[in-house]
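Suppose a colleague, Dr. K., hands you the sequence of a protein chain of 516 amino acids and asks what its three-dimensional shape might be. Before reaching for any lab equipment, you can write down a predicted structure in token form. Begin with the sequence itself:
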Amino acid sequence: MEPVNVGILSVVPPIIAIALALITKEVIFSLMLGIVSGTVIYSFAAGLGFTGIFTTTINLMIARVGENASMVIFLAMLGALVAIITKAGGSRAYGNWAAKRLKSAQSAGVTTVLLGIIIFIDDYFNCLTVGTVMRPVTDRFKISREKLAYLIDATAAPVCIIAPISSWAASVISYYPTATGITGMQAFVSAIPMNLYAVLTLVMVAWLVLRKNADYGPMAQAEIRAKQSEVGAGANAPAGDELSLIQASEKGTVFDLVVPVIFLVIFSVLAMLFYGGYWEGSDKGIFAAFGDTNAGAALSLGGFCAIFVTFFLFVPRKLLNLKEFFEAVVSGVKSMVPALVILALAWTISGVCRNLLMTGQYVAGVVQHSNIPPALIPAIMFVIAAALSFATGTSWGTFGILIPITIAVCDIVAPYLSITSLSAVMAGSVFGDHCSPISDTTILSSTGAGCRHIDHVATQIPYALTVASVCFAGYIVAGFTALLGFGVSVLITLGFSLAMLFVLLAALPKVWKRTR
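The predicted structure, expressed as tokens, is then:
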């Protein structure tokens, strides 16, 4: 299927999908209509006719799911692992243990954030692992599932995008032009201080978990509902959650949760290095190995090995018999089906935008050929990256489109803005990915937290927009202070941005009041 240039019509599918998702609260229906609208446009533009609508839709879906088959396997493996641990009683034991040591909702929130920061290698891994470990604890303290989903999401991509050893760093480095005088890794590390969305999101998360009554908007209402519920935050879980139906063993211990998770981390890291060629006998270092790895395959291998460990950890000790173990595997895979359906549709609509209608190229071309003052380049690139990432549901695709263009434009117009503009593209991409209803990270965060997907989106967007508005102002400041030197510009920009963020965080709970 060859792409076609349809101009402004290329933005129709993501607009339809996102608008309908927010209006109808039905994500699957909205994604399907978005996909069909895109294949209708493509089929008639490419001369395929009416039948081309159906063949294009199915062929694209098969191709996109095939490209992400390793992630499908990883999610199935992780769902199975979670169910096995739950049935063995590890989750229950951990919840009881944590409740005795974590004395408040505040300490549970802080622990969730710290765990999210520690698991920085990959955002998929982060979302599902943190949710698995912390959900029983946050439920016990009546922290809403929406709040847990936000804490997971806000410590996934924002942490990965400022961690040099991560799958995200590898993505950025791979898109950075080679003929620029510095390496992609050097540019990535240099851009970290100016990645305002990542830095400010982590500051905001710390503020929200350390202060009482700091929530506002829909999130505040979700917290009120959770506190008033007699059964805890689990009342906000999606109906028919397979994991909630599992009868947990009374014999499980804390180690029955901790040991499998530790092995999952170890096996995943080793698998990333293996697929990255670290042990092939060359002089390849750890950074290069992470840069060349196949994250999906590595995570799948890590998940399989962790399940293998749980079999010998639980069955010989008779926490589970053979039948119960594999019943848990089936239940765990079933629990991931809703997320996999949404992901398959999200991957497909992303393919419609990127592979068929050239949505990214259209948006990037509009920016590239506009005459704008150099000082405004970072702020404008932030907005464009945010819009493109939000519409397509992918940060990495936005990186691939905008990073080469941004660096090329800055080299010609304002070389001193190259690193700042790179930071702006990364920040905008993460923001759009962070709050887009069709983003895989957003979907996995709601899955990990056991939260209704559209509820996670609705409660998270006001928080994401708060940080994004500060970032936009910050990048205007960064553009006008860039000639003072990068270091000076960083200090001024961060100081201004932090001050603005703290003012908003102090004022919004009073302006956007809790109803009770």
